[in-house]
Amino acid sequence: MSKQTSCCAPLAREPIGKDDAAELAKVLKAVADPVRLRLLSLIAARDEDTCVCDLLPEFDLSQPTISHHLKILREAGLIESERRGTWVYSWVIPQALDRLSALFTTAPAETGAR
Amino acid sequence: MSKQTSCCAPLAREPIGKDDAAELAKVLKAVADPVRLRLLSLIAARDEDTCVCDLLPEFDLSQPTISHHLKILREAGLIESERRGTWVYSWVIPQALDRLSALFTTAPAETGAR
Fold it and tell me: Residue A6: is its pLDDT beyond 60?
C-alpha cells in the first residue's frame, strides 16, 4: 500500500549511501519538472482533496497530459489519487514532502541525548 | 557573482508561480541524479572544502565525468569551486540547500507578527 521511506538523514549530516541516492533521485526526478512542481504545489496548498477539474484551468495542457504528470507524482509516492464519480481527486502525502525537506536541511542536528 | 534566489515560499503554503517553477525545476534536475546527489552530500557533510581528489575514490567514474557532474551542481548554484594548485576544491552554498528544504516543508508558517 503506502511506500515506506526508510531514510533519510540530511545530506549535509552524513554522506548518502548508493541505494538511498538512487531511490531519492527517482523522487527528485518526479518534481524536477515545472508542470509537476506546480501541480504538486496546487494540490499541497489546498485544504481539501483536489479535483483534476480544478487543476486543468491552471495549465494550457490537455487532460491526458495533466493525468500523466499526476501519475508520475503518484508513482514517486508524493501524492495519492482516487476516482470519485466523473473526476479524480488527489492529495499530497505530507511525509514524502517532509522527507525531501529534511534531506536538504542544513540545520544542526538536535542533541536530544537522554 | 552569487546567484540571488528570490523565492521561495513552501510549495504547500501557496501555489508556485510559473517562473519560480521553471527556475526551481532546473535546480531540482541538478540534484535528481544519484551521482550528483552523492557528490553534493559528500561535499556538504565535510567540515572543510572538498578536494576532487577525495571524491574520486568514492565513485567508479573518471575524473572528467566527476568534474562534469560538479559543473552541473555549480551551474545550479548549489556549490562553488576553486582551483588550488593541482586540484579543484568545492563547498556547498548553504542558502541553496536551505531554499530546497523550505520549498518542501509542510510545517505551519510561523506567525511572527509584530
Answer: no
Q: Where do the domains of chain B lie?
A: 18-103
Among chain B residues, the shortest Cα distance to A37 is held by: B21
Q: Return the half-sphere exposure (C-beta side, CA atoms, 13 A cut-off) of residue A111.
A: 1
Q: Is B24 on the interface with A (CB under 8 A)?
A: yes
Cell of B16: 508556485
Mutate to test the interface with B, among A37, A48, A61 (most CBs of B within 10 A): A37
Beta carbons of A11 and B104 less than 8 Å apart: no
User: Which strands, in side-by-side order, build the sheet including A87-92?
Assistant: A50-51, A87-92, A79-84
Under CATH, which number does the domain A18-103 receive?
Answer: 1.10.10.10
pTM comes to 0.89
> Which value does ipTM take for this structure?
0.89
Task: Show the cell assigned to B86.
Answer: 593541482
CA distance A85 to chain B (A): 26
Please write the tens of the pLDDT for every residue from B17-50. Answer: 999 999 999 999 999 999 999 999 999 999 899 9
Of A28, A38, A94, Cβ closest to residue B106: A94
What average pLDDT does chain B have?
Answer: 90
CA distance linking residue B55 with residue B46, whole number of Å: 11
